[in-house]
Structure prediction request, 287 residues.
Amino acid sequence: MVDETVRMAKSSKSASDAPRTSPKQLPKWLPTAAWSVCLGGVAIALAVAVPRLLNSTANATLPAPIRVVLSGQPTWLPKDERAAIERGIIKSLASSPFDRDGLIAAQDVATRCGWYSDVQQVHRANVDEVIVEGSWAIPCALVCDADGEHLVDTRGRLLPRTYPTGRGPKLLRINGVTMPRPTTIGAQWTGDEIAAALTMATLFSECAWRSQIAAIDVSSWTNDGTVNVLSDKNCKIIWGRAPGKETASEVPATQKLAVLQMAFTQSGRVDTGAAVLDLRGDLTCAR
Prediction:
């Protein structure tokens, strides 16, 4: 019994004296490698998913209808012309809100419509709203020829409106033009005679008696470089050369305007009721 006890004690001591095995440690580089693998997976997922998302968004159909805003739209713009501009712009746009080519095409549509003297840009304010920004043409006069009365702006650009003779709006008429009408809307009507007539129109635009001036006649321009003015009572007002182009024997445009203003103040009529007024000299001749 004693021997068995001694044997068990020795066995227990031997077991306690045996070397202990410590737990196995992970390599220090393993966490870093794991994070790298995770981040690499995320990057691959983004590389695949983001282009698909952008492509899906780019090809998405826009809400209908698209609203076209013509910034600074003048009150005189005809409704049918406004509608035509809007339709052309909408037609040129692609379904994608990120489509740049469509915006460029829309700007070209606005430029070619003729009602803008300059189109700065066409841009989206929202996916369903497009804004056109530009400078509008200013209708100035009607150039008359055998085909009717053609609207031009202050720069002599042909606007997209032609009226039957005598049916146009109450704008100054320009008669006797020899240069041919432009074949393209928005193109400038060339010739010194048109330039002289438009200078006269600008000169009269702020005068109180402007409504009594019916037309500027440039039919004598090719002969002697002079213009005549016609009142709404068919009085022929012999003006002479264009403002700034007067000869030494001719009074300046400011003096001619003063004579017309005096006649209007005294009689209420710029033509004083006469059949002919000659404004070229220091003394106004009426007959």
Observations:
- The radius of gyration is 42 Å.
- DSSP finds seven helices and twelve strands in the chain.
- Residues 251 and 282 are 6 Å apart (CA to CA).
